[in-house]
Structure formats: C-alpha cells, structure tokens
Amino acid sequence: MYFSKIKATGSCIPLRTVTNDELANIVETDDEWIKSRTGICQRHVSIGEDTSDLATGTAKMILEKGNINPEDIELIVVATISPDYNVPSVSCIVQKNIGAVNAMAFDISAACSGFVFGMSIADKFIKTGAFKNALVIGSEVLSKHVNWADRSTCVLFGDGSGGAFIERSEKPGVIAEDVMSDGAKGFALTDARCTPSNVFNDVKKVESVEDIKIRMDGKEIFDFATRRIPKSIKKLMEENNITADDIKYIVPHQANERIVKFIAKKLKMPVEKFYLNIYEYGNTSSASIPIALNEMFEKNLLEEGDKIIISGFGGGLTWGSMLIEI
Ligand code: UT7
After folding, report:
1. Ligand 1 centroid vs 152 CA: distance in angstroms?
2. How many angstroms is it from 33 CA to the middle of ligand 1?
3. Quick check: is 44 catalytic?
4. What is the pTM of this model?
5. Which of 112, 133, 147, 256 is catalytic?
6. What is the pLDDT of residues 142-200, one digit of tens each?
7. Which protein residue's CA is at the shortest distance from atom 12 of ligand 1?
8. DSSP strand E in the chain: where?
9. 147, 253, 256, 294: which is the annotated catalytic residue?
10. What is the pLDDT of residues 98-129, one digit of tens each?
11. CB 43 within 8 A of CB 11
C-alpha cells in the first residue's frame, strides 16, 4: 500500500492589501468591529490577477521548491469557487502555463473545504496506484464575487492561492480523513453567479447584478462550523488512536478567529495548537489552508514525522478534516 506525502508547498498572494480602515471608507464599519468579531486586520485583493494567475504562481513556487520537472506531474487538481471561466478550468490553464503536458487536470468546487477535498481526491489516485503524484491547489479571487456594498460579507474575504505537491511514498503521508457534505443547508452561503435555468424562455428572469454576489447567513455558518468541526477532528483522532498530544498543529480554514477559539475550547485543546494567520489574509476560502501550510513550512514550524490535522468547512455545506504525517 502506498501513502501520498507532501513534497513541497507554495503560495501566491496579490501584493495589494486592504486594511480595515480602508474598508471603513466604503461601507459603514470600523477596525474595532472587524477585528473583534473576526480577527481580520487586512486582506489581499487582486489588482488584475485572475484565479489562474495566482494558481500558476503557486504552482511555479512549488516546482522550484520541490525541484520538480513539470513534465513529471501526473495530476493537477485546483479547488476554486472563483474560476476565470467555466471552461477552460483553472487547472487546465495552470497545466498550459507550467508545461505539465503529461497531467490530467480538473477543478473541483467545495468552497472553503476545497483544499481538503482536493487532497482527498488526489490521495485516492495515488493510493490506488493510478498516479505517482499530484499538484493540489486552492486558488481564489473572491473580490470578483464580493458585494462591496454589503458590510456583513465584504469585510471577511480575501484573494490568494496556495498548494501542495504530493507524491507516492512508502512512509505516511496522508493517514486518514473525515470528509462530508450537507446539501440541505447549502443556501446558508450562496454565490449566485449562474442565471436561472429557464433564461432562454424568459430573459427577464436574469437576476440583477446585485444578486449575482456572495450572500451568507453568518450565524448559521458560525454554528455549523463550531458544531461540525470539533466532532470531525475528534472522530479522526479517535479512529486513529491519537490524542491531542500527538498532534503538532491543527491547520483550520481561516474563516474567523472566534470560530477557531470555539473549536479549540470544545476539543479542550490549547488554541496555540491551531495555526492562525487570518489577521493578514482574511478568509481566502479554498486557499486558506494551503497558504497557512506553506507559511508554516517557511517558518520551520513543521518537521518530518510531525502529525497535523488540516480542517476545512464552508459552502455546500461541506467540511472535512485530514490527518497528515509530514
Ligand atoms: O468560510 C466559511 C464561510 N463564512 C464563515 O465562516 C463566517 C461565519 N460567520 C461569522 O464569522 C460571523 O457570523 C460574522 C463575522 C459574519 C458576523 O458576526 P456576528 O457576531 O454573527 O454578527 P451579526 O451578524 O450578529 O451582526 C451583529 C451586528 C448587526 O447589527 P444589529 O442588527 O445588531 O444592529 C450587523 O448589522 O453587527 C452588524 N454588522 C456590522 N457592523 C459593523 C454586520 N457586519 C458589520 C460590519 N461592521 N462589517
């Protein structure tokens, strides 16, 4: 049996930052509200880079750091809810940009759980022996989707991309996972970019531009995350006979510092075990976990043999946790 092990990580973040004070010039909000309710101090936003540009930047960093020949890449999975186009996929654009001519490439849509879902899919391809390696990227330009007049959502999101190259290994690797969805609650968080299905018969049914934006029931998502994620992490630890002491870090989706503190409290784990960088990036959806992972490697916080749990939650609704040995 094979494991899939992380060989290299990377990220690509737009240079333009938007502080809370700058947002207070656009909508009725203030630094104190945003920081105290979410932990966010600033976010990065695209000044023209699209999702595939950021994903390509991430891929190039990974190739360089891992000394990887693009022609050796066998699978590219990009998790995104903000693709450049419906077709071609972001992953196919990345494939072209980096010259990964021997890869199968496709996108997945699992919102803020996207990176965990992408890792789950890639891990299966490697474990079955179908592929020897995979490039898994989470990339978002959410600033295209945000309603900049809605203070309840526009302060939360940011743009960015991160990813990991995983390859077949005799040693672990991805050890176990708990990935799930609950479509019944899906409309708590929507991005209605698609027009109604009968638009051909009634062009008036096309929604107004204002409607084609992110809408969220923040409380519902908050409750969902603080209920589901502790259970998911606990299940993963119990099923694998692991205690909190065996875990070096939990790398949660960076949606809200308060959500992470709630999760830590419910699990009776010190909040210091949870890696947090939401202060700088805001919520970058599928990109938040791999951006954090890459930052952790750059800060030398992770060594071979360390066990971590990555845990994502969000639109769909979707959630998932994965136990990984570095
Ligand atoms: O990635 C997964 C997707 N998203 C999430 O995980 C987000 C999950 N939810 C949350 O993080 C929180 O629910 C929010 C940060 C979105 C909101 O925090 P909250 O403590 O649930 O605030 P609230 O929605 O109850 O709003 C409290 C008040 C309201 O005013 P009233 O009705 O009490 O007078 C809002 O209108 O705060 C107001 N408010 C704001 N005030 C200043 C909402 N947004 C803002 C704002 N600035 N940006």
Report:
1. 5
2. 9
3. no
4. 0.95
5. 112
6. 999 998 989 999 999 999 999 999 999 999 999 999 999 999 999 999 887 555 555 55
7. 218
8. 3-12, 17-19, 42-44, 75-79, 104-108, 133-140, 160-169, 174-181, 189-191, 214-216, 249-252, 307-314, 318-325
9. 253
10. 999 999 999 999 999 999 999 999 999 999 99
11. no
